[in-house]
Amino acid sequence: MVWSFRHDVKFWLFSLLVFVLDPLKCGMPRTDLLAAEIPAPSTITEGKTAQGYPYLAGGVSSNEREIFVARGRDFNLKLSFADRKGPYIADVQVVIEAAKGVEIIRIEVDGPLFFIRLPDGNYVVKATFNRETKQVNVKLVKDKGVHYTLLWDLRE
């Protein structure tokens, strides 16, 4: 096969156009569009206690936290879990008992937020993370919500 100058020029011009018009993509779909189209998996758990009290648990991603903010007015007891130095924590075992020791819920929360709607009354909230339990006595009164942030000192 005889190479001509003209053939070499066509080859190099074609190669140059491919690299200039499609740099680093190599024909792959645009990942920035795909990321926007595919929602992040949700770790929000929504349910009701045995007594029928609704709750939300989770809040790992910013999208999930937006859901908690939007739906927050539906719940009168809001709990969040964090390291004393600032970062939120997840995988917290939460137990809520009525004042007379009747267990309302026992759940492991996959994110830093737990919201529940309970009737007026006194409750004991116990939250355990890394074998350390925090306890809060809660009094709920009509038309008033409360928010507690339970903090752990997670030394490195």
Lay out the secondary structure:
Layout: H1 5-21, H2 31-37, E1 45-48, E2 54-58, H3 62-71, E3 77-83, E4 92-98, E5 103-109, E6 113-116, E7 121-129, E8 132-140, E9 146-152
Parallel strand pairs: 3-9
Antiparallel strand pairs: 1-2, 2-6, 3-6, 4-5, 4-7, 7-8
Task: Give short descriptive properties of this protein.
Immunoglobulin-like; 9 strands; alpha+beta; 156 residues; single chain
Describe the structure.
It is a single chain. This protein is of the alpha+beta class and about 160 residues long. The protein has 2 domains: about 5-35, no CATH class; about 45-150, Immunoglobulins (Immunoglobulin-like), CATH 2.60.40. Helices cover about 20% and strands about 40% of the residues. It contains 3 helices and 9 strands, in the order ααββαβββββββ. The chain has a 5-stranded mixed beta sheet, with helices on one face. A hairpin with a 4-residue loop joins β4 (about 90-100) and β5. The radius of gyration is 27 Å and the shape is globular.
